[in-house]
Design a protein that fits this description.
By secondary structure, the protein is mainly beta. It has one domain (3-145): Hotdog Thioesterase (Thiol Ester Dehydrase, Chain A, Roll), CATH 3.10.129.10. The protein is 14% helix and 38% strand. It contains two helices and seven strands; from the N terminus they run E-H-E-E-H-E-E-E-E. The chain has helices spanning 5-9, 57-72, and strands at residues 3-4, 23-27, 31-36, 83-93, 105-114, 118-127, 130-141. Strands 1-2-3-5-6-7-4 form a seven-stranded antiparallel sheet.
């Protein structure tokens, strides 16, 4: 791994049990690949009624996107610009639940567009090489500065 959970937790807005990723496997200017095992934890904060729905894979992907922002933006100096997931499109889920999957999750996010204020990513989550969930997500940067209209 190029970066572990501690490195990730210091650079994304999520901490404690809400930091879902275990590490960064590889990355470059357009792409990041992370790994996670938190989907198997009974105390995963995204569980509802003891279950972890497959759509929670979107949060895993969103955290990978935040990690990518930290890697290509601020590096080791500080947290990346605050982002807010504004939309997801073309989402395809191939399983009902994440908590029934035994192997680690393999999370990939690829930057496919954007500008200074918004970024578009394609994401996919796999388990043991099998697709779990995929789609596209738009992220608005510096979300804390945006006031409702």
């Amino acid at each position: 791994m190029t970066h572990d959970r501690e490195w990730i937790a210091a650079r994304i807005p999520h901490s404690g049990p809400m930091c879902l990723l275990d590490g960064v496997i590889e990355w470059d200017a357009q792409h990041v690949r992370c790994v996670a095992t938190s989907h198997r934890l009974a105390d995963n904060p995204l569980r509802s009624k003891g279950r972890l729905a497959s759509v929670c894979g979107i949060e895993y992907a969103a955290q990978a996107m935040a990690v990518h922002g930290a890697l290509v933006g601020a590096g080791d100096a500080k947290r990346p610009r605050v982002g807010m997931l504004t939309s997801v499109r073309g989402v395809r889920s191939y399983v009902d639940r994440l908590d029934t999957l035994d192997a680690p999750l393999d999370i990939e996010a690829e930057r496919i567009g954007g500008d200074e204020n918004t970024v578009l990513y394609r994401f996919n989550v796999r388990c043991g090489g099998v697709p779990v969930i995929e789609g596209r997500a738009a992220v608005m940067l510096d979300a804390e500065r945006t006031k409702p209209v």
